[in-house]
Amino acid sequence: MKKAARATGLKEKKQHGDQMFPVAIYDVFMDAGKVPVYLHWHEELEILFFTEGCTTFLIEGTELSLTAGDMLLVKPGALHGGHDKLTAPAAYRAILVRYEFLAGIGQDRIGRKYLEPLFAAKSGNYIHMPGWYRMHGQAAEAVKAVFSLFEEQGKGYELLVKARLFELFYSFYLLADENESGAGKEPYHMRSNGKTGRFMILYRRIIRKRSRWGRWPGRCISVKDIFVVFSRIIFICLLWSMSTGFGCSGRNIW
């Protein structure tokens, strides 16, 4: 448990699930102008699936820019939340579960071989699964299935929920393993840093496909912002053309 998190007194008091079945789900919809999630921590691990809009998220001081389709695994005891007000409506789905529910009392092979490395302190406070990751589709379907099982609560649904949770954590396990080996890095053309960062942010937030929940990712930037960026491209290309006598070459302007 993080000492800094304990010292702040920001532990969440709400009980998630019950002692016999410590699993809880939440559908959260937020209007523009509100802080998405205030800083807090809890003993449960948490899966966050952002389904609409975009937001800035903090985990133990690390700032993440998240858009629809992004998924987060927040580890137990990690201080997390947001501080910036939303510029557009946003939504996410959350699953909270106690680590012991998955690992078991005796720490069997699943706990020791897969869960312990996944939640080890050296691996950080969170795992970020972007929408382009190859296992994202399977993880998204597992989240959707968990919510459906909770809503229906048919006979033996607890068994199926646990099975789906293992399927979900399997995707995060593969991602963490690939990140450690260097195989899970984001392709260059999808990165939002470097000289092409501004254009790639536009690409990811506007031109990208709709999320699996059937919602548009949300207007994280306005039409005016789009117009300004593309008018800047045209203007600089025209200046370059007049100064060199050639047409627009399409080279990087940033």
Verbal overview:
There is one protein chain. The longest helix has 25 residues, at 157-181. This protein has seven helices and eight strands; from the N terminus they run H-E-E-E-E-E-E-E-H-H-E-H-H-H-H. The strands form two sheets. A five-stranded antiparallel sheet has the order 1-7-2-5-8. The chain has 254 residues and is α+β, with helices and mostly antiparallel strands. A hairpin with a 2-residue loop joins strand 3 and strand 4 (62-67).
In spatial order, strands of the major sheet run: 1-7-2-5-8
User: If you compute it from the alpha carbons, what radius of gyration comes out, rounded to the nearest whole angstrom?
Assistant: 21 Å
Q: What are the secondary-structure elements, in order, as H or E?
A: HEEEEEEEHHEHHHH
Stretches with pLDDT under 50, minimum 5 residues: 1-5, 183-219, 246-254
Strand content: 15-25%
Mean pLDDT comes to 77
Give the N-terminus to C-terminus distance in angstroms: 43 Å
Structural class: alpha+beta
Q: What overall geometry do the principal axes of the alpha carbons give?
A: elongated
* Strand tally: 8
Helix content: 25-40%
The number of helices is 7
Features:
single chain, 254 residues, alpha+beta, five-stranded antiparallel beta sheet, 7 helices, 8 strands, elongated, disordered C terminus
In brief, what are we looking at here?
The protein is about 40% helix and about 20% strand. The protein is of the alpha+beta class and about 250 residues long. The longest helix has 25 residues, at about 155-180.
